[in-house]
Amino acid sequence: MKISTSDFNKLMKTVSEGWNKGDARKSAGCFSEDAVYVEPPDKQVYKGREALYQFFGGENGPEIPMGMAWRHLAFNEDEQVGFGEYSFRMYRNYHGIVIVKIENGLIKFWREYQYQTELNWEEFSKLNAF
Question: Among 13, 43, 57, 99, which residue has the fewest nearby CB atoms (within 10 Å)?
């Protein structure tokens, strides 16, 4: 089952809504049972929806609030591969990009590259803001 760009945007926004609300089940539900979540080469590696549920805070939610904002989302409907540029705050502040592969309407693979900085988004992207 292939999804549309609109469905992709909703899926990615559901991930961030779950993180922002401390709802690990909501976010983890966007991933397949056998999903693989990686920050290459092996800074973070989580396999499976249940492992992601625990990583996202589990039943009690995260220790401290998470803040996630998508800056840009793009999706190739034919390949079912999408990209998202984001800002994320928890213990530290990050700006980064995630690349995902969708299978059967859920995230099967998640690969993220992020840059730790205390700059806000406007300062971080000021030389090429769009």
Answer: 43
Q: Looking at domain 5-58+65-128, which of 3.40.50.10540, 3.30.300.20, 3.10.450.50, 3.40.50.300 is its CATH number? A: 3.10.450.50
pTM for this model (two decimals): 0.94
Number of neighbouring beta carbons within 10 Å of residue 84: 24
Indicate the SS3 state at residue 10.
Answer: helix
What gap in Å lies between CA 105 and CA 49, rounded to an integer? 14
Segment 106-129 shows an average pLDDT of 96
Q: How confident is the model at residue 42 (pLDDT cuts 50, 70, 90)?
A: confident
* Sheet containing 93-103, strands listed edge to edge, beginning at the edge strand earlier in sequence: 44-47, 31-39, 106-116, 93-103, 81-89, 67-76
Q: Would you say 110 and 35 are in contact if contact means Cβ atoms under 8 Å apart?
A: yes
